[in-house]
């Protein structure tokens, strides 16, 4: 009898253990839910000092994503996306330099990254039970992310960007959300004067040979773009989640050092000297200042090709 | 100048005004020089009441820039060699919240009565300590405003020009980076609220 109870218990335990979804499974369900379900709500996002809010409508109709965002703070601004086509709209005489983007539309590559995926506890967001998922960097060269996924549908309800000291740099979360919303095509239209733009693909230009480049990169970063125009070099790197741009320009005069930060975005401008050659190096990205400064200071001229040698 | 403006100015002197009201006052000041005179008079009265020296510095332009710009935090230098450069970024159009306006005014008043060398020494001692980028409290914002008011005088025209050029370049590149990420569907959509004061 005792044996049977133990057997029963161990069987049910293993069944439960098998059923409990892993962090990876949660992430995969999240991407699916974000793109292929219908929902509408109000989301709040921003830095510590400034909050903005927008309404979100999303539907998956005829194998296409329909998404409309409308900014509720600052000057009126809208974004309508049908498939890959984006229409931006804003109030007359206002020229926003940035297209609206839903901070909770997240694409995280499933390939091996310099991050760990961890399951956390549960919380309540927009009136729904949410499962915490931590994307934790393997080092302190980049930031961590905390995601909150709807317990039932795995839709991303909230996100926090946190540094190694556990300070929240930026966050976004739904204040209210209606899942399985009844939305048809007629729900997606803009009231404001608009202009169309196609969703540009990720930078696809080939990575070209350049004359200056960093001699140090944090683990996991790879080049996504490199271009040289006369003596100016522009480089982009990504680790699959965070990215940064590096600009190397001629510096006829001494360059002051500047460091600025807005939420998770940091910019560092400094001078690099190699023999007689002086360059102004600017690094911009979603990385801690110390990482960007380390990268910027490591920029070196690439040795001339071997053909110049005797 | 009407009763409402008078009340708004009094509220400002008491540090009890909000950003919208401050904007209204600044706009009104552009059209009504008489109102600016009253503002300055109130400032002087306030300073005298607190037993401080009196200044006639017009800070309204700096205040307008501060409330128009996004908050921009300066970061502490990471190594001792870079320390000399700390004074440079402080000059940038650093955002100071409306609530810190009163303090900025007071500090400018203090600055007037000190010999410039002394104020520079004081600045180098004080500013790096309080410029912790996670101190998002008013004290941090105020110290940025302090640096703005005290530092301009200490730079040579060439240095100032180089600093301005570097700041413009930095802004241009930050926007370029942000736009690139917005066009890239793969990029994680961190909050792109970086917006520079275009004035």
Describe the structure.
The complex is a heterodimer of chains A (about 300) and B (about 200). Helix content of chain A is about 15%, strand content about 45%.
- Low-pLDDT stretches of chain B are 54-58, 78-152, 192-199
Give the beta-strand count of chain A.
19
> Low-confidence parts of chain A, pLDDT < 50 over ≥5 residues?
306-310
Run of helices and strands of chain A: HHEEEEEEEEEEEEEEEEEEHE
Largest protein interface, residues of each chain: A-B, 63 and 48 residues
Strand percentage of chain B: under 5%
Mean pLDDT reading of chain B? 54
- Structure classification of chain B: mainly alpha
Task: Summarize the model shown.
The complex is a heterodimer of chains A (310) and B (199). Chain A is mainly beta.
Task: Provide keyphrases for this structure.
heterodimer, A: mainly beta, B: 199 residues, mainly alpha, 9 helices, disordered C terminus
SSE topology sketch:
The complex is a heterodimer of chains A (310) and B (199).
Chain A: H1 2-19, H2 23-36, E1 39-46, E2 51-61, E3 64-71, E4 77-82, E5 85-90, E6 115-125, E7 128-137, E8 144-150, E9 156-162, E10 168-179, E11 194-198, E12 212-214, E13 222-229, E14 232-238, E15 243-250, E16 258-262, E17 265-274, E18 277-285, H3 289-297, E19 299-301
Antiparallel strand pairs in A: 1-2, 1-10, 2-3, 3-4, 4-5, 5-11, 6-7, 7-8, 8-9, 9-10, 12-19, 13-14, 14-15, 15-18, 16-17, 17-18
Chain B: H1 3-13, H2 19-31, H3 33-49, H4 60-68, E1 73-74, H5 87-90, H6 101-113, H7 116-130, H8 138-151, H9 157-183
């Amino acid at each position: 009898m005792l044996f049977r109870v133990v057997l029963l218990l161990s069987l049910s335990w293993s069944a439960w253990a098998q059923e409990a979804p892993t962090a990876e499974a949660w992430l995969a369900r999240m991407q699916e839910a974000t793109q292929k379900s219908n929902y509408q709500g109000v989301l709040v996002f921003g830095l510590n000092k400034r909050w903005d809010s927008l309404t979100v409508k999303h539907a998956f109709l005829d194998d296409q994503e329909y998404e409309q965002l409308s900014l509720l703070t600052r000057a009126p601004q809208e974004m309508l996306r049908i498939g890959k086509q984006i229409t931006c709209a804003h109030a007359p005489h206002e020229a926003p330099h940035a297209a609206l983007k839903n901070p909770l539309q997240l694409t995280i590559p499933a390939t091996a990254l310099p991050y760990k995926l961890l399951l956390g506890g549960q919380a309540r967001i927009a009136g729904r039970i949410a499962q915490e998922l931590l994307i934790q960097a393997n080092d302190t060269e980049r930031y961590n992310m905390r995601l909150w996924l709807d317990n039932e549908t795995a839709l991303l309800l909230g996100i926090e960007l946190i540094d190694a000291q556990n300070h929240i740099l930026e966050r976004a979360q739904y204040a209210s959300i209606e899942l399985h919303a009844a939305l048809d095509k007629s729900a997606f239209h803009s009231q404001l004067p608009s202009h169309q733009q196609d969703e540009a693909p990720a930078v696809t230009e080939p990575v070209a040979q350049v004359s200056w480049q960093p001699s140090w990169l944090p683990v996991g970063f790879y080049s996504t773009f490199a271009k040289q125009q006369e003596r100016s070099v522009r480089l982009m790197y990504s680790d699959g989640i965070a990215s940064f741009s590096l600009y190397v320009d001629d510096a006829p005069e001494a360059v002051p050092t500047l460091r600025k930060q807005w939420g998770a975005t940091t910019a560092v401008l400094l001078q690099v000297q190699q023999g007689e050659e002086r360059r102004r190096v600017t690094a911009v990205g979603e990385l801690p200042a110390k990482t960007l400064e380390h990268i910027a200071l490591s920029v070196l001229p690439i040795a001339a090709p071997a053909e110049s040698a005797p | 100048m009407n009763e409402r403006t008078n009340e708004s100015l009094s509220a400002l002197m008491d540090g009890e005004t909000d950003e919208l009201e401050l904007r209204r006052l600044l706009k009104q000041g552009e059209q009504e020089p008489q109102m600016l005179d009253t503002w300055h008079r109130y400032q002087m009265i306030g300073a005298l009441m607190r037993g401080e020296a009196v200044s006639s510095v017009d800070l309204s332009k700096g205040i307008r820039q501060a409330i128009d710009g996004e908050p921009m935090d300066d970061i502490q230098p990471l190594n001792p060699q870079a320390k000399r450069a700390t004074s440079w970024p402080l000059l940038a159009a650093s955002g100071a919240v409306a609530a810190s306006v009163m303090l900025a005014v007071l500090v400018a008043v203090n600055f007037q009565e000190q010999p410039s060398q002394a104020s520079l020494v004081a600045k180098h001692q004080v500013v790096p300590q309080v410029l912790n980028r996670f101190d998002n409290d008013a004290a941090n914002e105020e110290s940025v405003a302090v640096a703005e008011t005290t530092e301009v005088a200490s730079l040579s025209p060439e240095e100032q020009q180089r600093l301005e050029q570097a700041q413009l370049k930095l802004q241009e590149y930050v926007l370029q980076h942000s736009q690139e990420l917005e066009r890239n569907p793969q990029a994680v959509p961190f909050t792109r609220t970086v917006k520079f004061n275009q004035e």
